[in-house]
Amino acid sequence: xxxxxxxxxxxxxxxxxxxxxxxxxxxxxxxxxxxxxxxxxxxxxxxxxxxxxxxxxxxxxxxxxxxxxxxxxxxxxxxxxxxxxxxxxxxxxxxxxxxxxxxxxxxxxxxxxxxxxxxxxxxxxxxxxxxxxxxxxxxxxxxxxxxxxxxxxxxxxxxxxxxxxxxxxxxxxxxxxxxxxxxxxxxxxxxxxxxxxxxxxxxxxxxxxxxxxxxxxxxxxxxxxxxxxxxxxxxxxxxxxxxxxxxxxxxxxxxxxxxxxxxxxxxxxxxxxxxxxxxxxxxxxxxxxxxxxxxxxxxxxxxxxxxxxxxxxxxxxxxxxxxxxxxxxxxxxxxxxxxxxxxxxxxxxxxxxxxxxxxxxxxxxxxxxxxxxxxxxxxxxxxxxxxxxxxxxxxxxxxxxxxxxxxxxxxxxxxxxxxxxxxxxxxxxxxxxxxxxxxxxxxxxxxxxxxxxxxxxxxxxxxxxxxxxxxxxxxxxxxxxxxxxxxxxxxxxxxxxxxxxxxxxxxxxxxxxxxxxxxxxxxxxxxxxxxxxxxxxxxxxxxxxxxxxxxxxxxxxxxxxxxxxxxxxxxxxxxxxxxxxxxxxxxxxxx
Length: 591
Hints:
The protein is mainly alpha-helical. It contains 26 helices and seven strands. A hairpin with a 5-residue loop joins strand 2 and strand 3.
């Protein structure tokens, strides 16, 4: 009978979805279940079949079919608005689609909605699954409080109904929580337990998923020697369970391992292949537990210019913050500020748009950037920007200007006013002046033992950041001070990198850096002396002497003093050599 046939199809689909979603068998079961007319007396079963079909189609990266199944589930659920099982089945299907289409905020919202519905009706069967999905969404968003809430719900669900599936879900939730609280050893233990449980019960999909999380944590913990075990297990599973979704996720995992071990260039082939497939199918799944791993992959993709628009949209949807090392303006920052050279502001929409606030808000922005982003007291800002106004008028002007600046940026949270101080949210804003500070620290830490490729990257990075003086068209005192300070930072960084080039025997890039540094900071006597010594060491003594004359002329015209005795002594020792080297050779005598 049709009713019995529908139940058999639904049961087969549910079993295959749990064990091997995305295989040809599960897809045939999904097609068969959706082809049957629903039983009006068992709407919940029909919606559950749609939910299982969503899992099967999404695992096969057939997004259009998954979305079609979701539309049908919604239509069926509308016919049974008071049936909690039908509504929970719909939410479960929505959660799966939100997971593979990069909607973590939607996952958290839907999971909470489903858990509230299950609690109202005393239904325990769905709670472990809902808590797992909610925890995954909260992990992607970096919301630790939400992760802890879903962990508590998962533990309660297991205690109330201690099924094998609920235990596996609890192990995964504990793994996500341990990763979120920076306890990698505990996270590895929980994910390893989930893998063993999944293999024992034939839940291959869950076993692969947990193994991938395990591999990422091992790589990030510097335990790459332990990767062979889970890698072999996954390869064996893929021989009988070739899920396109999980195979593409595995490419992301292997790309991350190569990235950590050998750098972006080594990871490029796998990362490019995985991103191309994900963009083409519309189905995307990254390793979930490690925020560091996710941001490293996204940062590498942006650096390598792989699917830039697609990757930037994913970073925004996941709410990712950049890794601790500076990623530059290629990261999809909500706001990008350039002050070294031509001043510009780019608002990080899709696509980014150039913003040009009015003169008043622009002065406030520059003052905050010059102060390192703040926090800067309101009194100080008023004293710098509204010198001729009293305290009351100045505060009114500040409040008005702050409001206008926020309106121009379209996001009040980028410029914050707290406890009488104004600051820019540096976690969400990239500014070249701040990046220059960061690069100086990187250079000082790395230049002593870095190789030529590493120094070359830092050299190119320095030149891309410093395009000219800070706010060159402004003459206000606080901006002039910041200009001199940033020029000095550029010069110091260039000098450190030049030392690195000289250590490797590379004179030409060292000289180019030192000359650029002198253009930025022409009163830096140490730079003159260093460049003179470099020229002298390579035999260009006349060039070294000419450089001293330039130094002396600049100091006398700008400061009214001569260079220091040490620099004068260096020039004095070089002049005789310069005369010898530049005088014509003696005439040879003929026999």
